[in-house]
Amino acid sequence: MTTSHPRLRAALLLAGAAGLTLLTACGTSAPADAVEQQIVSQLGAATADCPDDLDGTVGAVLTCSATDATGSFDVTVTVTSLTGSDIAFDMERVS
Q: According to its UniProt record, what is one Pfam family this protein matches (predicted)?
């Protein structure tokens, strides 16, 4: 599945709670709203809120909050690689 946005390209490579997603970074980070959009799109959340932009450093971790029909939950976002201005990251739903 691919989503287009002026500064955003996403490709879900793994099904389920965790997936690898690519974002085009602005400088050395990906905007929080772009990460939130991917949480909603890829994990089926109704809402998502990230406290900061995603740092474009391999190993960087960002914890976001989200909601769905069953209630609220956290999502751990971990940067896995960088290619040019693309940030690849995994998302995992946690309790």
A: DUF4333
CB–CB of 12/39 below 8 Å? no
- Residues 66, 82: Cα–Cα separation, whole Å: 25
Q: Across the chain, how many H-helices and E-strands are there?
A: 1, 9
Q: Are 37 and 4 in contact (CB under 8 A)?
A: no
User: What total number of domains does the chain contain?
Assistant: 1
Question: Which pLDDT tens digits describe the chain residue by residue (95 residues)?
Answer: 223 333 333 332 222 344 555 555 455 888 999 999 999 999 999 999 999 999 999 999 999 999 999 999 999 999 999 888 888 899 999 97
